[in-house]
Every structure is written in C-alpha cells, then in structure tokens.
Write a sequence for this structure.
C-alpha cells in the first residue's frame, strides 16, 4: 500500500520562553498595536496580574479576575460587558487553562488579539480549540483563529504551583503526548514533539516534585508542556481524552486530577495495540511505562481514583457505553466489557 500524504500546517504564533519572559509582555502589547488591554486572570495568578497591571499603566483598560474552569458562557458574558464598557482592543490571560479559555472565548467574539501567559501545564495556549459550557453541556469548537497569537512562558510563574497541581498538570500534559504517539494522524513532526515532551516530563518531574522551587526543572517541564500542547493541536485525541471528556462532563470533575488518574489505565489498555508508541515510551521511561506513570499518578495527596473523585461505581458501565457509542479514533477499538473493566480499575 502507498503511504498517505500528510499535510503540515503551522499556526502563526509568537512564543517567548524563559525566566523573566513576563517582563516582555508590555512590549508584546505594543507590537500588536493595542492601546486598551483587558487583563483576565485566575485567582492564583493575582500577584502576577497585579505586577503586569502596574507595568501596563494607562494601557490597562480593565481587569477581570473571574475566569473559571470549562469556560461557562455566563462568565464570558460578564467579561464581554467589561470589553464593551472599556472598548478593550486586546486581551491578556494569566493563569491556568481556565484563564486562557476565557481569553479565547472573548477573542472569538470580538476578534481581539490575545497574549496567553500560562501558569499550569494544560497546553491550551497553543491549541485552536475552545470548549465552552452552557446549562451543563460542553461544546467544543476548533478554528485556527482561536489560537492565541502570542504566548509567554515564564517558568517563574509556575513556582507557586503546589506539589499536587505540579504532578497532575504534568500528567495532563503527558497525556497529550502519549495520545499523539498512537494517533491515527501522527506524523514525523508530532512524533518528535511527543517524544521530547514525554522525555522532559518523565525525566524532570520527580526532581521538581522533590524540590518545587527548582527553576531549571520547572523550565523544562513548562517547555515539555508547550510541546505537548502542540501535539494536542496537531493530532486527533483518542480514548484517554474521550474518557476525560465524558467523565468530566457527566460529573463535573477537576480537569488535571482526572487526566492524571486515568492515564496509566488507558496506557495499559492501549499500548499492546500501539507497539511503536509502546517502544518509545518504554525507552523514555527506562522500564514499563504503565508502571512508571501509575506510580507517579499515585504520588499526591489529592484524589487518585474515580471513586475518590465521587464518581458512583454503578455509573461506569453507562460511561463505557457512551464511549463505545461514538468512539474517538483509538488504536484498540473500545468495547463495553473491556472498557467497563478499565473504569473499574480506575475507580
Ligand atoms: P485551571 O486553570 O482551572 O487551574 C487549576 C487550579 O490551579 C485553579 O485553582 C488555579 O487557580 C490554580 N493555579 C493555576 N496556576 C497556578 C499556579 N501557578 N500556582 C498555584 N495555583 C495555580 O486548570 P488547568 O488544568 O490549567 O486548565 C483546565 C482548563 O483548561 C479546563 O477548562 C480545560 O477544559 C481547559 N483546557 C483546554 C484545552 C484546549 O486546548 N482547549 C487544553 C487543556 C485544557
């Protein structure tokens, strides 16, 4: 058979990486020609947002600190009112995926350019994807115009991440890389990004967990999360992300914790069917990747099972059925019995 032709499309974006990169944000705003900046932040990024507000001076139009997880349309509506009142012409997001999601939602509605300054490893800042919730229903859209045009990675902004978030958010990033390795539309480029991302995370994470103030290690984790986000932007996700979407949607679960606890179970399920991904991950992990990831995932004080997250055990079969009904592309075709068993082990 003739190998299919792959098409690479690179989204235009400008990425600044390194300690202190946040001090360049005012210059980036100037570069965009913006005069009235709306600053959106999550509570955790209050200090960084305050610092930036000072640096922006009169170019700061307003601050909106109300970003919350899963981009509820109602919250976006409140922020849109602020945009209207202040005639903001650019939006800067500082915080986790929640702040970045809100900036994307505002940009889609207004065409405002975005500067994303992530403080977790979720990776949303480099993807053309926006998930929004309304009346408990999450809808996702994909459009190159959604991708923030400027991204600023400053590892100093990640030093405040507690151990639990550092671990779960890193495994969230690792999940993007792992699924890219077995994606049906993987390319040489996505393989390279995923391999480097997984290597960075598995190599450095134990050191950062032992010393949360290790700036160089934090920098490597953040760079790995960037590459993992690029994987998410480039390839179709499979069973892991589908389970996270279905479970997260049905039971309103915390994003990073859910990804972290599912990953090893999905790897155990899929890797025998994805020999190339298995070989790469085994090389990177220096042993059985399922065991290595499973051990990491169990190493924090937060919930590490679906049961601990409050998911009722008798709902798991329905979750499996939902997945089997319209499966995302996956190396191992999901089937209700096997999937229910996977969910029981994660429970
Ligand atoms: P989040 O933004 O909700 O942050 C999680 C928690 O960590 C919050 O309480 C936050 O205040 C805190 N926090 C963030 N940065 C911190 C720091 N540096 N120090 C201390 N605390 C900090 O969660 P997240 O996991 O970053 O992102 C999840 C959201 O992003 C979800 O809405 C998810 O759907 C979305 N997401 C979207 C994409 C995409 O491509 N569209 C990709 C990944 C995630």
């Amino acid at each position: 058979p003739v190998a299919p032709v792959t098409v690479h499309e690179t989204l235009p974006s400008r990425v600044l990486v390194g300690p202190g990169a946040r001090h360049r944000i005012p210059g980036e705003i100037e570069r965009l020609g913006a005069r009235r900046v709306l600053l959106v932040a999550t509570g955790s990024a209050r200090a960084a947002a305050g610092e930036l507000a000072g640096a922006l001076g009169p170019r700061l139009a307003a601050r909106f600190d109300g970003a919350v997880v899963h981009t509820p349309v109602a919250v976006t509506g409140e922020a849109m009112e602020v945009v209207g009142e202040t005639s903001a012409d650019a939006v800067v997001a500082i915080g986790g995926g929640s702040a970045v999601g809100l900036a994307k939602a505002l940009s889609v509605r207004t065409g405002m350019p975005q500067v994303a300054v992530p403080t977790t490893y979720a990776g949303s800042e480099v993807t053309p994807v926006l998930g929004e919730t309304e009346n408990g229903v999450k809808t996702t859209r994909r459009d190159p115009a959604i991708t923030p045009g400027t991204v600023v990675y400053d590892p100093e902004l990640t030093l405040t991440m507690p151990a639990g978030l550092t671990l779960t958010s890193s495994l969230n990033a690792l999940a993007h890389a792992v699924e890219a390795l077995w994606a049906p539309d993987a390319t040489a480029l996505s393989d390279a990004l995923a391999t480097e991302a997984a290597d960075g995370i598995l190599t450095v994470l134990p050191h950062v967990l032992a010393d949360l103030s290790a700036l160089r290690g934090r920098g490597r984790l953040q760079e790995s999360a960037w590459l993992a986000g690029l994987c998410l932007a480039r390839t179709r996700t499979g069973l892991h992300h589908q389970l996270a979407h279905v479970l997260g949607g049905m039971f309103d679960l915390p994003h990073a914790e859910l990804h972290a606890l599912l990953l090893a179970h999905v790897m155990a399920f899929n890797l025998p069917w994805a020999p190339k991904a298995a070989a790469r991950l085994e090389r990177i992990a220096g042993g059985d990747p399922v065991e290595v990831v499973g051990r990491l995932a169990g190493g924090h004080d937060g919930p590490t099972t679906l049961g601990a997250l409050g998911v009722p055990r008798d709902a798991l079969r329905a979750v499996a059925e939902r997945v089997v009904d319209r499966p995302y592309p996956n190396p191992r075709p999901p089937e209700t019995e096997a999937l229910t068993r996977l969910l029981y082990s994660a429970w």
Observations:
- Residues 42-44, 69-70, 95-98, 101, 119-120, 122-124, 127, 129-131, 157-158, 160-161, 165, 169, 232, 255-256 surround nicotinamide-adenine-dinucleotide (CB under 6 Å).
- Strands lie at 14-17, 37-41, 60-64, 90-95, 114-118, 129-134, 137-142, 150-153.
- The mean pLDDT is 95.
